[in-house]
Amino acid sequence: MKFIHTADLHLDSPFRGLDEMPAQIWQRVHQSTFTAFERIVDAAINQQVDFILIVGDIYDRDHHSAEAEDFFVRQCQRLAKQQIPVYLSYGNHDYQPVTEQIDSLPNNVHVFGNQVETKTLTLADDQTVAITGFSYGKRWLVEDQVSKFPEKETADWQIGMLHGDISQNNPDQDHYAPFTLPELLQKRYDYWALGHIHKHQVLNEEPLVVYPGNPQGRHKNEDGQHGYYLVQSNSDKLTAEFKPVAPIEWCEIDAHLTHDQTVDSLIEMLLHRGEAEDGFKMIAFNVHLTDQVNALTKKLLANGTILERLQENLSEKGDYQWWPYQLNLLKGTALPKMTDLDQEYWDQSAQDVFNQDAVIDLTDKLAKYGFIADQLADPSLVEQLRYEASQKLGEGDHDEN
Ligand SMILES: [Mn+2]
Any idea which GO molecular function terms this record carries (predicted)? Predict the structure, then answer.
């Protein structure tokens, strides 16, 4: 048996706030979720896999675009021509009522209904595979779904498809088919194909319990490599191998400016750092400043000029191997543009406002909007909010001048 496990394709992710970049780069960014899945289908065909599992969030939003749907159908048709079945479930992003075979999809695509059900297939070598799963019919599924999964019975291989999150034992957070690892293991399945968490990870080795992550990261918090898992049997054991496919990778680079650095030498340094990266990278520079940094350099960093010059430099060459989309000034920053604001006063109020408690408070009020709750749950958010606020305050000051 050989199959591909993927999830969270998030086709047609909007990549908001990134459209101010050269058309070539924007095209690449906007197409990336499509390209990543196309590469998975290429791999399925080249590897002659027995089937593909797609565990929820095929589309980025519940009202997905017709273009995204058309793209997905065409990719499934490529697999149909090769007699490769697709088993899919919808997740919290593309939840929908599933009552019968969805007519736009070719016959090789098997969609799980809103209630837990099991589908079986027989492989070329006569081994049988039972696959159990369900589709989200609404944005939240607060009830445990795993209790509805049958224990492994007579099939040679039993696979569970579960788009969900490990239970936090907190009804305010457990919105996505909460489960525990022991509960999964009790079912004696051969493989648990998870979805929902966007960072690829193996939760358990025997049997394998795997989050494949999304095949294309959508922003800086989904950095590093993204791809799918190729799962193969070797006698009665399964192995899962991570295969990267993401056409763009998000990355953060720390740069420390401790000396009296000129603007030109700074730009040169950042260009070198970007060029040293392999593959196409979308780079956010985190520039750490100290008081010794030249005052003019600080101003140009803070008002966006340095980032613009970096981008101009790459645009002039026209050879895009990476793109600096953001430049953050971080701790040690003297907040150069906030000349009228007492630093001590800022630090004190920032501490009051930008802390995890304040964010949780906000989360409670906004939690009914699932997509907002997802964003707010991100641990790096506090730091990011604090930084954005300092930038905004700085911009105000700049405008007055
Ligand atoms: Mn997702």
Answer: exonuclease activity
Q: What is the pLDDT of residues 48-68, one digit of tens each?
A: 999 999 999 999 876 778 999
CATH of the domain at 235: 3.60.21.10
Q: E-strand spans in 39-182?
A: 51-55, 86-89, 109-111, 117-122, 128-133, 157-163
Examine the fold and report which residue of 223, 244, 265 is the final residue of a domain before the chain moves on.
Answer: 244
Does some domain include residue 294? yes
Q: From ligand 1's centre to the CA of 118, what distance in Å?
A: 23
Q: How far is the centre of ligand 1, averaged over its atoms, from the C-alpha of 93 (Å)?
A: 7
Contact 9, 57 (CB under 8 A): yes
Asked if residue 203 lies in contact with residue 210, where contact means CB atoms within 8 angstroms, the answer is yes
Using the mean position of ligand 1's atoms as its centre, give its distance from the Cα of residue 7 in Å.
7
What's the gap in Å between 342 CA and the centre of ligand 1?
42
CA of 344 to the centre of ligand 1 (A): 41
Ligand 1 centroid – CA 312 distance (Å): 35
As a whole number of angstroms, the distance between CA 65 and CA 48 comes to 30
Tens digit of each residue's pLDDT (9 = 90 or more) over 119-163: 999 999 999 999 999 999 999 999 999 999 999 999 999 999 999
pTM: 0.81
Q: How many domains does the chain have?
A: 3
Is residue 195 located within the same domain as residue 90? yes
Could you tell me the distance, in angstroms and rounded to a whole number, from the CA of residue 117 to the centre of ligand 1? 22
Whether residues 386 and 313 fall in one domain: no
